[in-house]
Amino acid sequence: MPYRFKAKQSIEENVRRIAHEEIDSAVDLLSRVAPRKRDESVHEARKSIKKTRALLRLVAPELGKTFNQENKRFRDTGHQLSVLRDAAALLETVGHIEEQLGASLDRRLLATVRRGLQRQKRELEHQFTRSKTIPRAASALRAAAKRIRGWPLGADGFEAIAPGLKRSYRDGRRALKRAQQKRDIVSYHDLRKRVKDHWYHVRLLESIWTEVMQAHEASLKELETWLGEDHNVSVLREKLEENPDHFGGEQTVRVFLALADQYQKELQEKALALAERVYVEKPRLFLANIAALWDGWQKQPPAMKEVEREQRDSKEKRVSGRTAA
Q1: Ranges of each domain in the chain
Q2: If 0-12 CB within 10 Å is exposed, 13-18 middle and 19+ buried, where does residue 290 land?
């Protein structure tokens, strides 16, 4: 099911429905993991966990202490799976560096770094199998699904989500300022987390004005991708510098990281430029605009629903076409 609110459902109904859908999806992925698709299954399961945490942040004031308890549980479950996913992401990052800077790279150097990462990934996969991390994560998520009915959700209407939505957007603006000032791994990573929350919240509210929200969502997705890749390069640097002998020696690592630095600088410049446009509005104005769209969405005539459905279908076909290509 789509990760978005439905006009006919109350906030409580929407939140419980979406939480069930995402948790059930994650459990299904982890319960039937095939060796050849383990990376993909774990990645998609972690995405569902992150989407659930973003949903919780949207209604955090309503949940009270329950938010802290549930957020910690989902965070811990996601972290159990992150080690394997991070290993796969680093290999993908090496591939992206090759795509961007292929003409500048020594293929033998690149192959040496990739072999070292592949060797570490195989070791992690063996540890995962022995520790039964995936079955334990699936079990934790099944328990979480049973707790959904007990979440204290009472308020309805835009007022139920306005505080969480404003806070998420405001935190993103603050994270952007810190990243612009400090420009270090911590500030960029914090900005990425805040962007991801805002991106998921926009997806939840996509139906209030399909075309406008989809355009904003596309910008956020691109921004999150750049910041995520920036973080992967930073993690890759730490791993190579920590044990250069596993990746061809200090000289090999030094040459490779010089090229990675060039790639990372481009990512950071693009990300900060786009983030300035994403967070151009002040929180109060942003919230007022969303509130007006929400009111119009609630009062829309039935004929508008067909228009919105066609817009969403058109978007999904474009996405599907790009994926196939």
Answers
A1: 11-319
A2: buried
